[in-house]
Amino acid sequence: MSDLRTGAVARLFDDLSPTYDQSGVAFFSPVAERLVALVRPVPGEQVADFGCGRGAVALRIASAVGPDGSVTAMDLAPGMVAATAEEAERRGLTWLRAVTGDAGGPDLPAASLDLLTASLVLFFLPDPLAAVRCWLDLLGPGGRIGITTFGEQDEVWRAVDDLFDPYLPPGMLDPRTAGRRGPFSSESALAALVSEAGGQVTASVEEPLPVRFADVEQWERFSLSTGQRQMWQLVPEPERAGLRAAAGRLLESARPVPGGAIEVRQVIRCTLVERL
Ligand SMILES: C[S@@+](CC[C@H](N)C(=O)[O-])C[C@H]1O[C@@H](n2cnc3c(N)ncnc32)[C@H](O)[C@@H]1O
Fold this sequence. Notes:
This protein is α/β, with parallel strands linked by helices and 276 residues long. The chain is built from 10 helices and 7 strands.
């Protein structure tokens, strides 16, 4: 998505927090479910979820670890933290603590965690290698880290996202969220980063996630509720209608059943990391 510095990322996601994951499109929940299935939290575990957003992962893990465990849900954006805290309270998950903080330099004691998760977050950090190194130090004996990142998109979704390219500054053209190069471009590139940080990948699963939009308007609401909103902001107002129309034509070609939902696919990569 971007190469923004930490302050700009915090502002972007704070602005997004009221609508993030509220468009009715099943995206962040199925990603979180895959991650939780991979890391398998058990009752009593001490867990931190970095870049918690509105709690897609942290709330699920809090239910799994139960009152004998604890979950620190942390995000840079205060609006995200407030939304997670509110939902935890509504569900009676009093052992979940939602805090504002930077996953690049978390204020947690060394060797204090059984499990650390970060779903769709690592690529936002200015120095992912330093972050993973520091996350490994937070693990107690037998501790593990679970992260999710993006793999390939199908042709239609990629073509839709490529419509923004003419408006993006050079640094955003090979987005670090996936990219054709760099640590998030493949399972092996990510494994190399983990190994340089002093860890090892003990499981890696790449699986396409089918994502359905009832119509082009729902895609647009979804797009504007994610980090892609900053790309819309780079498109001059008079050109937005043209981009919307072009995206609409592409998306309309992706209705497997005429009159049914639009369906596109994004590969989600789930990675389990342990200390070497
Ligand atoms: C794509 S969202 C994912 C949110 C959540 N994990 C989920 O799966 O729904 C990325 C989140 O990471 C947060 N974030 C980005 N950089 C961060 C940092 N340095 N420290 C903590 N949170 C960060 C953003 O504020 C945002 O809430």
